[in-house]
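Researcher: Quick one. two chains, 492 residues in total.
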Amino acid sequence: MGAAAPAFKSLQLEFPPDAASFPDGPNVKIVNQNCLACHSADMVLDQPLLPRATWAAEVAKMRNTYKAPLKDADMPLIVDYLAATHAPPQ
Amino acid sequence: MRSRRAILVEGAGALAVAATPTWAAAQAPDFPFPGGNGARPLTKDFPQKGAMVLQRSRPPMLETPFADFDRGVFTPNDKFFVRWHWSDIPTEIDAKSYRLVVRGQVQNELSLALPDLLQFPRVEIAAVNQCSGNSRGFFEPRVPGGQWGNGAMGNARWAGVRLRDVLEKAGAKPSAVAVRFTGLDKAPVSDGPQFQKSLSLDHARQPEILIAYAMNGAALPLLNGYPIRLVVPGCYSTYWVKMLNDIEVLDAPDDNFWMKTAYLIPDTPHADMKPGQTGVAMVPISRMLPRSFITNLGPGARLKAGARASLRGLAMGGDSGVAKVEVSADGGQSWQAAKLGADEGPYSFRRWTAELTMSGAGEAMLAVRCTNSAGDTQPGQPNWNGSGYMRNVVEQTPVTLV
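Model:
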């Protein structure tokens, strides 16, 4: 580990493709159209099973805080998908 | 039926456990998170990175496989964890045109090309970089967020220039109270809040804070912030802004989203509160806490009953040095001191080793705890908060005596 001056080189790299979509469920087309614009599906699929109210808060946060351009009509449909596929049994 | 592992342990002699961790380095992990869903793939697909645990493809979140922590106190650059907030990350850096701007409440605005940084004294410091939410997957009840195991941390020898020296050249005006840092990553939506973090002016002037252009003797990997990032020893990774290109000196405390709303913790010891508790005062996350880990064996390891087991691992003091590491063969009822390895400075990982006699037979619980030089010891009970921050409970490792 020398004290040589660092070489500041230009870099051009590629990130791996990320084409994975959400597994089947109610309204999955709307989920894929909206959620994948900003993040990969594994961000959601790796979450613990969360109750519907928590998913509703997450979807609201995506729009209100992180400015995802979600339509009013699509928000409950996305929550329905998450509650149907990734929530604990009632 | 006896496992291959048990035979390995006995064959290695009474003093030793297996020379390699019981979790194989090349194996995709299945983290034992409460409620499950802890299986993650390994990926070698990201540039300048070796095999990493894939937590999220985009924006990338890559975790260090835990076996790599057994290799030494410094985490290799190609194994260092990765975490980005927004997906619009430059994949191309033009070293000639890259500029670091220093502006705001300063006498002289600066626009520094990368070679301009070399006019300032070169400084090196060993420091742990740990995500605020490291180990979030172990929270119970579970909380949303990146579901990390324990590998959203790493230790490097960082080299660069003191932030203080750069601020001094710009000359903070008397009105200056805080310093805000911005990198090149952007939201993919036009009005998404730009990721920015701030330090008080007093904190920004502390000598340990660097603008780093190297880690472990090499350039930073792009995913770790090439060409330069902020290094804030003792503080969580959220402040270590990557691809740093803008430093703004402010005349009021920063109220941007990432300081005022995100990354808040309960203003309580170890950021602990009860699920559902209301009226808790919240403050920005800041200083790290002591932690320690066994690195040469994992849950489910088989050790020879009645024999001495050699343990080794890593400890960190958080915002001060490692004063003491203790190990337990009975789940934390009794403790014995571990031997500390070389001291690489107060913000570094420190190696520890210990030999424990494993009496009895059947199931046993190993534990390790660290006390830092400020006298803070890891708690026996886990903390909880709704964001899954600052886990530092004593780690317990179940083993079987055979």
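Residues 1-22 of chain B have pLDDT under 50 and may be disordered.
Researcher: Thanks, that's what I needed.
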